[in-house]
Amino acid sequence: MRALLVLALVAAPAVVPAVAHADRRSLSFAYDYQTQPEGETEIELFTTQSRATWADGAPEAFELALGLEHGITARWDVALTHVFNQASGAAATASPLQLGDVELRTRYRFAERGQRPVDVVAYASVARQFGASAYLGEARAIVARDFGRLTVVADAIGQVSFGAEIAEPAIGLGWAGGVTYELSPTWTVGAESWGDVDVEHTDRYQTWAGPALSWAPSSRLWVTATGGFGLNDRSDRFTLRGVVGLAL
After folding, report:
1. The CATH number of the domain where 243 resides is what?
2. Pairing state between β 238-247 and 221-230
3. Which site from 1, 35, 64, 104 is most exposed, i.e. has the minimal number of CB atoms within 10 Å?
């Protein structure tokens, strides 16, 4: 009997994944209506690979981001993320893996899920480019709505680049959004789209779209992946992002 009890306690997180999955994300580029629970800390690992074209030897880009996220209150969290970059392909653009920037981010939810017709999260971040007096500020309005097991999410994004090494502040706009469906407490499937546009030249925009899949084998671990295909000539032909969250 004691052995059966021990086995049940060990297996419980895997067979009862309906417990809240900390800051689980169902999409890789768009943010869900979620913040880190109060007092909880999570490590998040992002890996993104992009290919400029389908041609042999086409330039490829790799980004590795490691973040530490903590819940300050039930609706407010902060995160510190270090981003590393690497490029391959043409000699002029090839580079080894190196620290790109350090980002400080915060989010705030205005109500509990489903209390209002539309759930809203305020997001703000600032990133400093490593080894340079160059900064990128970003603000997002994240809105979401549940329709049973179906969830619709949309992020409106504004960015500004500034610093001593930037001659004139530059403003950029972007978006990310998608639809997800909960197959079970463990699995969700969906699709998302994201992109950005040059404010001064609105015809110069990039946009991608593709499927997303999320898996949460326990209440302390989740994995999400999205594959995106470029929808215009300015966009990389293919981008793949994976995100892993591990609650401490």
Report:
1. 2.40.160.40
2. antiparallel
3. 1
> Is the CB of residue 247 less than 8 Å from the CB of residue 22?
yes
> How far, in Å, CA of 248 to CA of 41, rounded?
6
Q: Are strands 170-182 and 150-162 parallel, antiparallel or unpaired?
A: antiparallel
Rounded Cα–Cα distance for residues 114 and 148 (Å)? 11
Would you call 73 helix, strand, or coil by DSSP?
A: coil
Number of independent structural domains in the chain? 1
Q: What pLDDT shows up at residue 239?
A: 98
- pTM value? 0.86
27 token code pair? 């999409």
Region of 54 (left: φ > 0; alpha: ψ -120 to 50; beta: rest) is: alpha
Question: Is residue 181 a contact partner of residue 150, using CB atoms and an 8 Å limit?
Answer: yes
Contacts of 218 by beta carbon, 8 Å cutoff, 6+ apart: 13, 14, 17
Give pLDDT tens digits for 134-166.
999 999 999 999 999 999 999 999 999 999 999
The residue segments making up the domain with residue 102 are 2-247
What is the Cα–Cα distance from 178 to 229, expressed in whole angstroms? 14
User: Can you give the pLDDT at residue 5?
Assistant: 36
